[in-house]
Amino acid sequence: MKKRLILLTRAACLLTSGTAAAGPDGAEHDASSFWISPITDEIFARIQGKSFKDDCTLPREDLRYLHLLHMDLNGETHEGEMIVNYHIAEDVLDIFRKLYDAKYPIEKIRLVDEYDADDEASMEDNNSSSFNFRFISHTTNVSKHGRGLAVDINTLYNPYTKVVDGERIVEPVTGEPYLDREADFPYKIDHDDLCFKLFTEHGFEWGGDWEDRKDYQHFEIPTDLINEWYPSNG
User: Fold this and answer.
1) Helices vs. strands in the chain: H and E counts, helices first
2) Residue spans of beta strands (DSSP E) within the chain
3) CA torsion angle for 172, 174, 180, 181 (degrees, to 10)?
4) pLDDT digit string (tens) for 179-199?
5) All structural domains of the chain with their residue ranges
6) Residue range 24-63, pLDDT digits in tens
7) Which of 65, 82, 161, 228 could serve as a FRET partner for 37 with CA atoms 20 to 30 Å apart?
């Protein structure tokens, strides 16, 4: 049986505005701190020519802006921003709300546009993000990040790695010390990690389970489901 996303009602994700509740850090936060928005003109101005590149084939209407809260290792609460595909917006918002409630540490959640859509710079800064339009190398197929259907978490400590022609590639390059997944260090994602459990419960696949390469920061929607949503994959 194919995996399917847990479909949440919008009411379950968009919390009632105007009410306040104590967050896990003990401070009061407006319940509307977790919300979803279409890509307004103001938001689009921030991403146009950066993550939303001039050759972007994904309609702007297919994207959603998420506003959320996250907690760092010191227990401090921060506001976060992320752009994802509308198909997964409610699921991703629910995941981040549960991560925040559990005091799960995430250092930064900023739009990749703050790094001029430079993935390496974003990853080196341990930034968590999703949408950044690009084609898969040497193809006309849009990547999963290019559709906003993949999410990267705590990227410096959960690098991508692959051996090509006998040479090991690590992205970000500063993530090499964290390739030893038996070592103990902060922000590490593994099978016992709450982040892994929540994303996979919502139908995502984890790059740490891949055989030919490892992408420990990466959670993505299965290809068969994306092909249903975007049959042309163009």
Assistant:
1) 6, 13
2) 20-22, 28-30, 35-38, 63-71, 77-85, 108-109, 127-128, 150-152, 160-164, 167-171, 205-206, 214-215, 218-220
3) -50
4) 999 999 999 999 999 999 999
5) 14-229
6) 555 445 557 999 999 999 999 999 999 999 999 999 999 9
7) 228
